[in-house]
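Sample pair:
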Amino acid sequence: MDDLQWKIDGQDTAGTWIPSTNTFVSTKFSANQRLHTLFSTQVWSLPTPTSTLVATEAAGALGTITKVAGPILRGGAWWWMVKYDDGKQGWSLETNLSL
């Protein structure tokens, strides 16, 4: 799958495909960038709070934007696939993340 297709489709941590609602992509982060959470941040299996909650990361938790997935625009918010340093991986809201 190429970069353009990731703008249209997303994938959860179990490999389930979900559609995006927009082809404009947030450029706040890029693949392999290190980041930290600004607040207590929920980590979801899909980029929606109606999916399975994987974990809740504390404010200041460190992680890395994954190489392949995201960003995905769902429900008017940008979501990024993050692998946190504690081993948890999933989708988190862009507004909760910072470089």
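Helices lie at 3-8.
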